[in-house]
Specification:
N-(1-d-carboxylethyl)-l-norvaline Dehydrogenase, domain 2; Rossmann fold; alpha/beta; 2 domains
Length: about 260
């Protein structure tokens, strides 16, 4: 069954999810964004109609996907009458209860992955977390998600918030640490790519070892001399010193 879908949003999640849905045989018929330029950019990739006014939303589509910033979902939901429409949001930290009870069928369609427009991803192994207000709509969403990924799970709002939290630790914070490492190298005229093999191996270990088993470095060995040398090197960056000390203490206490 081919679904006609309206995508409300034009950012990273909307871009990748639209592509995955199209690859599964569905149609994105409209793309909404407050900025028409952004709506047009994604709509051209989807052969869809760009709009920047909710009054122009198609009223007969099979599914409406809200893929915008978490803080903007509540306002959008209160602006549009979704009463007799099938509607979902894609946010990790926003409860199912953001939707008013007057809507007949609503839910959450949360792909647990980091997305960047400039980088392709394979949806086939991305966990997709599903929650819905009715068993019938839950089954409907699972059937769609299963066309995109082999990893579809029923996850409630509380569980999803914890999953989103772990993503911040395992992805966002880790990526910021990559930035710090690259910044230190750059300031010392060292090619940042020297980190790449180390990063690849660190990431690959998770397939065979638990994070606890994979931990290495001076903190796990309680190598106070090396730690002091590192902190001395960071003397001109007290914020980096603070991060280094906090993480080192955490590793030491864990092990």
């Amino acid at each position: 069954m081919v679904l006609n879908i309206v995508m409300l949003g034009s950012g990273n999640v909307a871009t990748h999810l639209s592509a995955a849905l199209i690859n599964s045989g569905h149609k994105i018929i409209q793309v909404y964004s407050r900025k028409f330029k952004n709506a047009k950019e994604l709509a051209e990739k989807c052969n869809a109609i760009p709009i920047n006014k909710v009054s122009k939303l198609d009223n007969d589509s099979d599914l409406y996907i809200i893929a915008i910033s978490d803080k903007a979902i509540g306002e959008l939901v209160s602006t549009i009458d979704f009463t007799n429409k099938n509607v979902v949001h894609t946010a990790g930290s926003v409860s199912l209860n953001i939707f008013p009870k007057s809507i007949v069928q609503y839910g959450v369609f949360y792909p647990f992955q980091t997305f960047s427009k400039k980088r392709d991803v394979q949806f086939s192994d991305i966990p997709i977390c599903i929650e819905a207000n009715t068993a019938k709509f839950e089954e409907f969403l699972i059937s769609i998600a299963s066309q995109l990924s082999g990893n579809v799970q029923k996850i409630n709002s509380t569980q999803r918030k914890h999953i989103h939290l772990t993503g911040v630790f395992a992805c966002n914070f880790v990526n910021h640490l990559y930035y710090i490492a690259c910044n230190i190298l750059s300031k010392n005229n060292i090619d940042e790519k020297i980190l790449n093999p180390l990063i690849r191996e660190t990431s690959a270990k998770i397939n065979e070892l638990s994070p606890f088993e994979a931990q290495t470095g001076p903190a796990v060995r309680n190598d106070k001399e090396s730690i002091k040398k590192h902190l001395d090197l960071l003397s001109s960056s007290p914020e980096y010193q603070q991060i280094y000390s906090l993480l080192s203490d955490g590793i030491y206490k864990t092990h």
